[in-house]
Amino acid sequence: MPAGPHPPQPSPVDALRRLISLRWLSIVAMGGVLLCVPWLLDIRLPGESLLPVLAALLVANGLSMLRLRHLAEIHAAELFGQLCIELAAWSAFLYFTGGATNPLISLLLPLVAIGAATLGAPYAWALAGLAVAAYSVLWDFNEQLDIYDSGLAVHWHLAGMWLTFAVSAGVIVWYVVRMTAALRSRDQALAEARETRLRNERIVALGNLAAGAAHELGTPLGTMAIIAGEMARDRQLGDSVRADAELLLEQLAHCKQILGSLTLRAGSLRAEGGEALPADSWLQGIADRWRRLRPHVPLTTRIDCGAPAPRLVADTTLEQAIHNLINNAADASPEGIECEAGIASDALVVRVLDRGPGLPEGFAPTAGRAADAAHKGLGIGLLLASGAVERCGGHIAFSPRPGGGTIATLTLPLASLQP
Questions:
Q1: Which of 103, 256, 317, 400 suits a disulfide with 388, CB 3.0-4.6 Å?
Q2: SS3 382
Q3: Phi, psi (rounded to 5 degrees) for 379
Q4: Which helix (H) or strand (E) holds 15?
Q5: Where are the beta strands (DSSP E) in 1-110?
Q6: Of the candidates 164, 145, 162, 163, which has an alpha carbon nearest to the alpha carbon of residue 153?
Q7: DSSP strand E in 324-413: where?
């Protein structure tokens, strides 16, 4: 039977950070024993032997913190060594405080559990073997504490066992919960990266399809332009028919212009996007070009980018992104739409508002969810718009509009657009 997949391991840097936190807990616990046991239980502890153990653990943790500041790779063997230092410190502490008869001996178990959660199988088994060996040695080799009342000794031993069990359970839960949260966060980041890669692959496929379509559509568009031109010049046709033919001819000219620049627009770099323009002029130009393509849908623009407006060298794909957002709004609300733009918090914010039916139930896409939006019928334009915006460090968000409709908000950091 084939072995199942190995569970994901936390990153070594995060694991070392958690081990350092765990060692601080060990230092606090040892210090608490040294201070509280003689005072509460009237049991004399060999401070001259225990203080060097505590000091050594402090030095080890300080060096580990310095090690954490370096960006060099941390290997599993180093994490194993860190846990061995912890195990050695507790073994020495227990040796001078009764060995296996000390209820604190159970604190070796959380170290084994943490090693199993942090290390690979060989190191985890090695750590478990060392812990068992330490327990076995402390069984026969130790320095007993002087406790004159045997009945009181049994009572405090049972109380110590309870306390040790409670501390061990808390440490194990604390460590495993933190490690599980880190693994969930990493899995989510991997899932988002995988989704982004799949979306980019889809955009590349669409780009290839668009290039092929541009090549294939050139001939039929030319034929339609010739026929529309002949109809516009035919005096035998009515004035309304010739006006429609002229409008058709104008739209065909726009289509040919778009197809002619498709290859240039697809994948063009920001530096190739053209000269620097004021933000308000750039946005107004996008709105004017859209009006020429869809003259029957009223578009109201309110653009206030300050005086003077910041100059931008925008990726040409961003123009298509804003165009697609306006187009989606026009499809949902052909009776009229609005577009607002301004500068807020070092970012260009563009809002497209419509009075359409609103967002589908359960739909709340961001830039990373545009592929889902396309499947829900909002159009592949949203997928392309989100890809272009993400490349510039921006995002797209949707919200319901008071009174009905939808607000699409596109946010772009100015730092990625300025020359």
A1: 317
A2: helix
A3: 100, 145
A4: helix 12-40
A5: none
A6: 145
A7: 337-343, 347-353, 395-400, 406-413
Q: Closest Cα partner for 318 from 363, 294, 286?
A: 286
For residue 272, which amino acid is it? E
> Which residue type, as a one-letter code, is found at position 314?
A
Answer yes or no: pTM beyond 0.90: no
Query: How far apart are the C-alpha atoms of 95 and 89, rounded to whole Å?
Result: 10
- Note down pLDDT in tens along the chain; length 419 residues: 334 444 444 566 777 888 888 888 888 888 888 888 777 776 778 888 889 989 998 998 888 888 877 756 678 888 888 889 989 998 998 898 888 778 778 878 888 888 887 888 899 899 999 999 998 898 888 887 766 655 655 666 666 677 777 777 777 787 778 777 777 877 787 877 787 777 666 666 666 666 666 666 766 777 888 888 888 888 888 888 888 888 888 888 877 776 666 555 544 443 344 567 888 888 998 899 888 888 888 999 999 988 888 888 776 678 878 888 898 889 888 999 999 999 988 889 999 999 988 876 655 544 444 444 433 444 556 666 777 787 778 888 888 888 888 999 999 888 887 76
309 contacts 280 by C-beta, under 8 angstroms: yes
| Interatomic CA distance for residues 347 and 397, integer angstroms | 14
**Distance (Å, whole) CA 225 – CA 44:** 103
- Give Cα separations from 73 to 14, 16, 62, 219 (angstroms): 12, 11, 19, 59
d(CA 329, CA 338): 9
Reported residue count of the chain is: 419
Q: Are the beta carbons of 322 and 349 closer than 8 angstroms? A: no
How far is it, in rounded angstroms, from Cα 84 to Cα 94? 15
290's CB contacts (< 8 A; 6+ apart) are: 299, 323, 326, 327
Q: Say whether the peptide bond before residue 308 is cis (omega within 30 degrees of 0).
A: yes
Name residue 364's beta-bridge partners: none
Axis crossing angle, helix 121-140 with helix 108-118, rounded to the nearest 10: 170
Radius of gyration from C-alpha coordinates of the chain:
35
Question: Containing H/E element for 209?
Answer: helix 150-233
